[in-house]
Each structure stands twice: as structure tokens, then as C-alpha cells.
């Protein structure tokens, strides 16, 4: 009953999702890779982490590590392809109508947008920002992957810990998300505030040392 409530959130891709779930941490790893690409997963890694933590005896951090590692690889693939193809990759994969708005947001906030979209536990079009970072040519691979890894690690570890401690409550929230929209907005605001603050502090230190 608990698992069926979660799995209902993954339709109409239930068969593919069931396959990822069958392989446990390995399935989560590959799903997280896909999540970092333009292929939509609709928050699949977060949901699968909850399912695996609640239904399997493995430690929660095993799933957090698997999801983080997969996400880093997916982000690198998107970043690298966009760096090679440039603006053509953005136009081809994401559609021309969204590109101007995306570039305006990215030009203003830079990596803080990438970090925020990685850290916030909601299904956001993060791969668009990965591609924008790659196409811009302004960010070095190690710094990009470190930022993605820390933000995703924080996100997936938080989801896994919450699922480990409050499994039934998390399932109830996923089953009826509209009843908890206020909390979602509050948590999202906190995540964004902390992320932007950290990025601004790092920029200040970098400017002072430079």
C-alpha cells in the first residue's frame, strides 16, 4: 500500500520506473544519470530514493551516494555536449522559446542558478542550466562538477534521511502534495536563500583574494 502510493506518482512511466527500482542502488544510479540530461524524469530519483529507503534494508546513505554519483555523470554529459555544440545544443534540445528567458536568468545569477536548482528537492528543469553553463564557456569542469556534487549530495542525503526517519509521513506528502504546498514553498525559499548566500560569500572571498 505504501509503495503503490509512491509508484502512482511516476505514471505514465511506471514500467520504466519499476525496472529502475528492481535494480536498487544501481537502478537509482542510472536514473540519476538520465535526470541530468534533457530526458525528463519528473523528480524520479527523489521518489525512488524514498521507495528504496522505505522498502529495503540497505542503509540510507547508500542510495544518497548512488544518486549523487549518477547525477554528477549526467550533469557532466550535458555540460560537455553543450560546450562542444554551443548555442545549437540549447536550441536543439530545449526549444527556442525558452532559451531567451533561460539565458537572462543564467546571465544574472550564473552558478547560483545551477546550485539552487540542484539543491531544491523539486522537479526543476536543471538540465537546461547544465547546458547553459556548458554553452557559456565560462565555467571550468572541476568547479562545475564540485558545485553540482555538493548541491545534489545535500539534496539526496536530505531526502534519504527524511525517508529513513519519517517514511510514512513522506509517502503521505507525495500522495497528496497539494495539501502541503505551503511547506513546499517555505522549504524552497530556505534552500534558495542558503544557496544564494553561499554563492555570494564565495564570490566575495574570490574577489578579495584576487
Biggest pleated sheet: none
Bulk shape: globular
What structural category do the secondary elements indicate? Answer: mainly alpha
Distance between the termini: 57 Å
SSE blueprint:
Blueprint: H1 2-7, H2 14-22, H3 24-35, H4 44-55, H5 60-85, H6 87-94, H7 99-109, H8 111-119, H9 126-136, H10 141-165, H11 167-175, H12 181-209
Helix pairs in contact: 2-3, 3-4, 3-5, 4-5, 4-10, 4-11, 5-6, 5-9, 5-10, 6-9, 8-9, 8-10, 8-12, 10-11
Write a structural description:
- With 210 residues, the chain is mainly α.
- It contains 12 helices and no strands.
- The chain has one domain.
Features:
mainly alpha; 12 helices; 80% helix
Summarize the structure.
By secondary structure, the protein is mainly alpha-helical. 80% of the residues lie in helices and 0% in strands. The protein has one domain.
